[in-house]
Amino acid sequence: MFNTYRTKRSRRAAVGLASAAAALTLALVGCSQSEDSTTPPASSSEHDTQTVVTAQDMWVKATDPDITPGEAMSGVFGTLENHGDENLVITDLKSDAADVVELHEVVDGKMRKIEGDVTVPADGSLLLEPGANHIMLMQITKPLTPGDDVTVTLTFSDGSTLEIVALVKDTSGANESYEDIDGDEAMDHGDMDMSGDADAMDHG
């Protein structure tokens, strides 16, 4: 009887020790998970892609409704504002409406691609307007109809990007020509008025 009693007690003790060990293990795991949940993110790279540049009053000149896809061109205008303390250079442009997107300027009434950096100054702005600097959409894939939206994505020198949604508007003006980089060739640009005359633009 004595030996039987001690055997039962030993079994109870063993069971108790096993339960205590299991409880301790669960407590340690819980502490570990709790510590992990309070660990800050290892990297803040997501914040690095958030641009400090905003766009105001962006619009695009409408094209003729019967354009041949891949041949028409148009301009994007508005204001880019840099709210940061670092100058930002525009390094890349893309659009859902055109196969080629470039930054252009007007010199002696002719448009040409800008050679060199185009900067949105720190705590300043870059004006894009007819007769001056602007974003050029080339090889447009389909007609741009008044009331439509055109998306243009800009990439800056700090790696950030800005997606612009520009409203297509109807304008009227004299025929202008587009001059290539070397200034040797010119081709018809349609009826884009690049003179900067406000009376020639219907902002609807």
From TrEMBL:
<dbReference type="InterPro" id="IPR058248">
    <property type="entry name" value="Lxx211020-like"/>
</dbReference>
<feature type="region of interest" description="Disordered">
    <location>
        <begin position="175"/>
        <end position="204"/>
    </location>
</feature>
<dbReference type="InterPro" id="IPR036182">
    <property type="entry name" value="PCuAC_sf"/>
</dbReference>
<feature type="signal peptide">
    <location>
        <begin position="1"/>
        <end position="34"/>
    </location>
</feature>
<protein>
    <recommendedName>
        <fullName>Copper chaperone PCu(A)C</fullName>
    </recommendedName>
</protein>
<keyword id="KW-0732">Signal</keyword>
<dbReference type="InterPro" id="IPR007410">
    <property type="entry name" value="LpqE-like"/>
</dbReference>
<dbReference type="Pfam" id="PF04314">
    <property type="entry name" value="PCuAC"/>
</dbReference>
